[in-house]
Amino acid sequence: MTYPIVFLGAGPGDPELITLKGRRLLDEADVIVYAGSLVNPVLLDGVRGRVHDSAGMDLDEIMNIMVTAARAGKMVVRLHTGDPAIYGAIREQMQRLDRENMEYEVVPGVSSALASAAALKVELTVPEVTQTVIFTRQAGRTPVPERESLQNLAALQASMCIFLSVSMIDKVVAELTTGGYPADTPVAVVEKASWPDQHIVRGTLADIEEKIQDSEIRKTAMILVGRALADDATAVSKLYDAGFSHEYREKK
Ligand code: SAH
């Protein structure tokens, strides 16, 4: 029997934030290829499979390990940080497997965007403040289509989770401000959300750049922006409102 290759979301760092299915598959795997720069190595303690760190490998090398092992009847897990669908570069890997007619599955994980919201204890979708969350990044070496530049997205004033961008906090702040968020819009930066050394810096668009430059935070951090982060974002959800009936509850 040959097993499908599994693309697996490791979660944001805390080894308890992997799914039960993910934990089982990791324990069963014969071969594990993981992104050493971001996945918490504690997740790999005690696994029986052979572990390869993909950090120094190119796509050919990664695919070669996975395809060779799977063809030999081994169970292969490709472990990605957070959820594999978000900046996981899984598409190019899946396309290669399609070309080779090889089967694969994807098992989701807790994205660092959601672990960061949990660390801040915020709801990103506050009624009458915003009902939209944007996952995005500042353009850097990887370009972003112009229509979805931070400056253009800022016009919505939704909640934003900005990945891969803390080293360009100056550009992030400049684009968001030019794009229309007021200077007092709350911004929080969460470094290593859910790890033991998690670190949070809170501010506004007016002062976050300076605060980050004064901190040690240079990478593995999420930038969250929007009024939903403010203490005064007090609009109340209709879901638990006594005067609002819905499918499961009659209004009083
Ligand atoms: N697939 C991952 C994202 C990979 S891109 C996910 O769903 O979380 C890598 C970026 O994710 C980093 O630059 C950083 O912005 C963010 N990131 C990953 N892990 C993080 C963590 N524990 N805390 C904060 N940000 C994190």
Shape: globular
- Coarse structural class: alpha/beta
Q: What's the CATH topology label of the largest domain?
A: Methyltransferase, Cobalt-precorrin-4 Transmethylase, Domain 2
- Show unreliable segments: none
Domain count: 2
Under CATH, the homologous superfamily of the largest domain reads Tetrapyrrole methylase, C-terminal domain
Q: C-alpha Rg, in Å?
A: 21 Å
Count of distinct strands: 10
Order of H and E elements:
EHEEHEHEHEHEHEEHE
Give the biggest beta sheet: 5 strands, parallel
* Main CATH class of the largest domain: Alpha Beta
Binned, the helix content reads 25-40%
Helix-strand blueprint:
Elements: E1 5-9, H1 20-28, E2 31-34, E3 50-53, H2 59-71, E4 76-80, H3 90-99, E5 104-107, H4 112-120, E6 133-137, H5 150-154, E7 159-163, H6 169-179, E8 186-191, E9 199-204, H7 208-214, E10 221-225
The structure holds S-adenosyl-L-homocysteine.
